[in-house]
Amino acid sequence: MSEPIIKVRGLHKYFGPLHVIKGVDLDVMPQEVVVIIGPSGAGKSTFLRCLNFLEEPSAGTVEIDGVEIKARESGREHRRLIQEIRQKAGMVFQQFNLFPHMTVLGNIIEAPITVKKMPRDQAIAKAEELLEWVGLLHKRDEYPSRLSGGQQQRVAIARALAMDPKIMLFDEPTSALDPELIGEVVEVMERLANEGMTMVVVTHEIHFARDVADRVIFMDEGVWAEMAPPEQIFTNPKEERTRQFLAHIL
Length: 250
Hints:
39% of the residues lie in helices and 25% in strands. It is α/β, with parallel strands linked by helices.
């Protein structure tokens, strides 16, 4: 039996008096795809951001691929561990977050060269391979402003993959896209899942959750209200809150 690649224990997050995440635990196995759904304000994106310490948890521990970080510690070692976790956990945001002053290629090679000290020609070769994989090699010299939202998000996925992450975190990756562009991003995510990438995905794309997830978590008011395989969550949820939520979106 392999070990979980992600272990979260007793995670809490406060923003001032607001208690956004209330002591959740989670184990994710290698190659597992976990999708988190739930109403706005449930704490889904905050949870994801706590996994790679874009938000500092208020209490609890996060362990990714053997690197464990306790909440509320500080100092040089704490910062080093955060850097290590961020290299293991690629993140794709709602708002693409590409550098507007850099070409597509420049966006992808930036982190491997500066963080991993990868030789430039090696970084370029890897970036071109990834661009081909997301179907955008012909856009390598374009600037982000000249791409559609779906293309920008596919570049953002390629950029995250350029660091050879062990896991990928997706924070509502399609919610800023026009409906006709959602499919091209979901398709890349499905291919990533099929190739065995461990993924934690916050999304409203129920088709993706139903077709690709190994487990779906329904999050409400900062806790896991229900966690089950997709067929159970979507056809026979146990919790009334889950049923009410799904009645609105299905």
